[in-house]
Structure formats: C-alpha cells, structure tokens
Amino acid sequence: MFKTLGILGTGNMGRAIASGLVRSGLMQGNQVYLYNLHPEKAQRLADELGAVRVDSAKELLERSEAVILAVKPFIMPGVLEEIKPYITSGKIMVSIAAGLTLSRLAAAMPEQTKIVRVMPNTPAMVGEGMSALTFNTYLTEAEKEAVVAIFRSFGKAEVVEERLIDAVCGLSGSGPAFVYMFIEALADAGVREGMFRPMAYTFAAQTVLGAAKMVLETGEHPGKLKDDVCSPGGTTIEAVKSLEENGFRAAAMNAVIVSAEKNKTL
Ligand SMILES: NC(=O)C1=CN([C@@H]2O[C@H](COP(=O)(O)OP(=O)(O)OC[C@H]3O[C@@H](n4cnc5c(N)ncnc54)[C@H](O)[C@@H]3O)[C@@H](O)[C@H]2O)C=CC1
Ligand SMILES: O=C(O)[C@@H]1CCC=N1
C-alpha cells in the first residue's frame, strides 16, 4: 500500500473517498493529505478523520505518492495545468472526473505519467461504494493492486476496459441518485397511506437495502426474486402491472443510457 495519498478536492466524492478509506483502516488519517481551494472545507474533513490539510496543490503533490483528483470535470483542465510541474517520475495520478478519458488526461501530463481513471460513487462514504478502474500502461502490477485496494477499502471495485466507463457512469456513478428518487417516491406513497415521514424513509430504505442484498447474496435472478413476492391474484402482481403500464423499466433503462451518453460528451 502507498505510504501517503493526496486528495485534491474535498467535496462530495473526495470526502466520501477519504472517509471510506480512513474508516476502513486501510490507511491512517495521518497518511492522507487533503487540499481544497477553500481551506476550511479541507480542514473540517481533516479534523474529522485525523488527516492532514495542506496549503497548496504543490505541497499535496510533493507529499503524496499517489494523488486522487476529485474536482468537477470543467475544473480539471486548470488543475492539470497547475499540478503538471510537480508530477515527478513515479507519481500516480488518479482521476475520478466524469468524461475525461485516459488519452485526454495523458495529453495534459508529462510523458509516461502513471494514470488511473476511476468512476466511483458516493456510497463509498458508508463503505458500500461501487467503482470501476482503468489504467494506462505505465503502472506496475503492484501499483495497480494498491490503487484497486484503495477503492476496495470502501466497497466493491472492478478493473474494466475503458470503453465500459461510460456505462458504469450511467449505472453505478449516477445510479444512487435514481435510487434516492425511488426511495423518496416509495416514502411519499407511505405518507399518502398514513405513515409518518421518518417511518416511511426507514421502511423504504431498508426495503431497497434488503432487496439489493438478496440479489447479491442469493445469486438468484432478480426476476425469480420478484416472482417470489408476487402471490397469485395478490397485491404485488397488481402493483407490478401498474409499474409496467407506466413504463417503469423503460424509464430506469433510459436514465442509465442518457447518463452514459452524456459522459461521452463532457
Ligand atoms: N458526485 C458524484 O456522485 C460523483 C462524482 N464523480 C466525479 O467526481 C468529481 C468531483 O465531484 P464532486 O465531489 O461531486 O464535486 P464537488 O464540487 O462536490 O467537489 C469538488 C471540490 O473541489 C474543490 N475545488 C474546486 N476547485 C479546486 C481547485 N482548483 N483545487 C482544489 N480544490 C478545488 C471545491 O471547493 C469542492 O469542494 C467530478 O469530476 C465528478 O465527475 C464521479 C462519480 C460520482
Ligand atoms: O453527475 C455527474 O457528472 C457525476 C458523475 C457520476 C455521478 N455524478
């Protein structure tokens, strides 16, 4: 494992990664360096995790073996230009920016920079992230394993061909937002039927968590698990018919597809 890791940008994703990583115990807080344009944001997170806030991108690069760039895609060109002079040989650059390909990243870095492109998601914050990683040719096997271990410390992580990163963006990168909307809608209906809000959110979220665990842990086809809930002539099949009539599956598929397509244009 790396002795030191830098995170540039401590917003939604930088915070989720730093928190997940330190809480998993894979790295100690004092091995993790944080830099944010707004120092108070980095300081707050550093205080929470026992991590170290640094004052500049230069210092972050100088003190870290590997650096995760966690700023919005439109900020990335400026950040890449700013850090380029400090990318010494052997330094590992990890980008989580939507849309930025390995070749575009490489074009902005010194030649032969070791580059990793990752698409993570925010449930990293609670140790249930889903990340896909793709590497350029300059990392050693041990370095690749160390980067994968970081993303496995707060969830599942798979190495994929770069062509699949857009699909991953649509499915697991954006997916949490769709699931939160689904949870909100389930809870709204619970409230409509008389539940109090806190109860409705707990019942909705636990139902999604339980169903997700059933898929992951039983290995059964989701269709079979759905069939098991539907009693003949019962309540659930009535609701399944309603979802089908309202284009539920097509809506969910289209959400993933438009996110993936957008990722190709950023
Ligand atoms: N939010 C999500 O669910 C996911 C986001 N991503 C990617 O992660 C990246 C970061 O996204 P978020 O965390 O949502 O953004 P964010 O806006 O929440 O966080 C970025 C942070 O970087 C700071 N910052 C801005 N310019 C800076 C600079 N020049 N130097 C240092 N810090 C600077 C901002 O103050 C902010 O705190 C994006 O490229 C996005 O595509 C990838 C997967 C999921
Ligand atoms: O909306 C976005 O651009 C980022 C990428 C995946 C999730 N959020």
TrEMBL record:
Q: Which domain of life is it from?
A: Bacteria
Which keywords are on file for this protein? Amino-acid biosynthesis, Cytoplasm, NADP, Oxidoreductase, Proline biosynthesis
- According to its UniProt record, this protein's enzyme class is oxidoreductase
**Pyrroline-5-carboxylate reductase dimerisation domain mapped to chain residues:** 162-265
**What Enzyme Commission number does this protein have?**
1.5.1.2
Query: What does the function comment of this entry state?
Result: Catalyzes the reduction of 1-pyrroline-5-carboxylate (PCA) to L-proline.
NCBIfam families associated with the record: proC
Q: Which family does it belong to?
A: Belongs to the pyrroline-5-carboxylate reductase family.
HAMAP family recorded: P5C_reductase
Protein name per its UniProtKB record: Pyrroline-5-carboxylate reductase
Species whose genome carries this gene: Megasphaera hominis
Q: Which lineage is the organism of this entry classified under, starting from the top rank?
A: Bacteria, Bacillati, Bacillota, Negativicutes, Veillonellales
Q: Which gene encodes it?
A: proC
